[in-house]
């Protein structure tokens, strides 16, 4: 289904956008090829899809990324006719090449991590694609309404906000701008909700409910300057009491 959808998109773009590859080798990191790629819309703002179709005037037998070999033809007549890259939160994440040999064609799939393109089986590609559509990053300073529900409560002096992801999504990373607070280390670990305690409109303390398979844990964090430090439950509520006192005195 993924490939048939993309093939339909490619058919629409093929007459309008043709990347003219040079010779028989292309480097997909080259500015010329990047500028020739066109973006196709997706239904997720966190995911961008980029297509690049090779000119029929050339037979592309080698594909590189920053000089590193990604794919090479293994027989006469075998050539790459297009490639697709999916970006997740602005970073290259998944990709595949369509390879044609005469009347037959097949796909080569990749998991992308920085400059590394690692070839993977189709089953792993589908699983990773599914995770890309459901896994999300939560920013305590800029919660996004399409990812989480928000409940506000003020049990003491400090305003607190509970953020629950919608059923469609799993939170796998919690951050404050570019500062990482917590990140999942496994496909079965996710954050079920985040509670942000604010002072003067800024996140000051956070606790979160983390699910790991059938087990659960509550993690507590305090902001020290621009850093977030994990602390024990007793220390968390002691500091929260101090913060409540500060807010009450204002």
Automatic annotation (TrEMBL):
Name the domain of life: Eukaryota
Name it.
Signal peptide containing protein
Organism encoding this protein? Theileria equi strain WA
């Amino acid at each position: 289904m993924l490939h048939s959808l993309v093939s339909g998109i490619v058919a629409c773009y093929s007459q309008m956008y043709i990347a003219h590859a040079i010779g028989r080798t292309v480097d997909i990191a080259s500015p010329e090829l990047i500028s020739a790629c066109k973006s196709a819309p997706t239904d997720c703002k966190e995911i961008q899809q980029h297509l690049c179709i090779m000119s029929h005037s050339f037979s592309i037998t080698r594909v590189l990324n920053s000089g590193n070999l990604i794919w090479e033809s293994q027989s006469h007549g075998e050539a790459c006719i297009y490639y697709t890259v999916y970006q997740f939160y602005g970073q290259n994440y998944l990709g595949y090449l369509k390879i044609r040999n005469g009347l037959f064609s097949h796909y080569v799939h990749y998991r992308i991590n920085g400059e590394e393109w690692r070839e993977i089986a189709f089953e792993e590609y589908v699983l990773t694609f599914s995770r890309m559509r459901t896994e999300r990053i939560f920013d305590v300073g800029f919660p996004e309404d399409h990812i989480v529900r928000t409940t506000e409560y003020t049990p003491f002096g400090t305003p607190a906000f509970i953020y629950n992801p919608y059923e469609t999504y799993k939170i796998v990373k919690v951050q404050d701008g570019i500062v990482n607070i917590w990140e999942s280390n496994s496909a079965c670990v996710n954050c079920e909700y985040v509670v942000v305690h604010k002072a003067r409109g800024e996140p000051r303390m956070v606790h979160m409910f983390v699910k790991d398979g059938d087990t659960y844990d509550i993690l507590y964090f305090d902001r020290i300057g621009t850093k977030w430090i994990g602390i024990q439950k007793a220390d968390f509520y002691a500091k929260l009491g101090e913060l409540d006192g500060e807010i009450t005195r204002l």
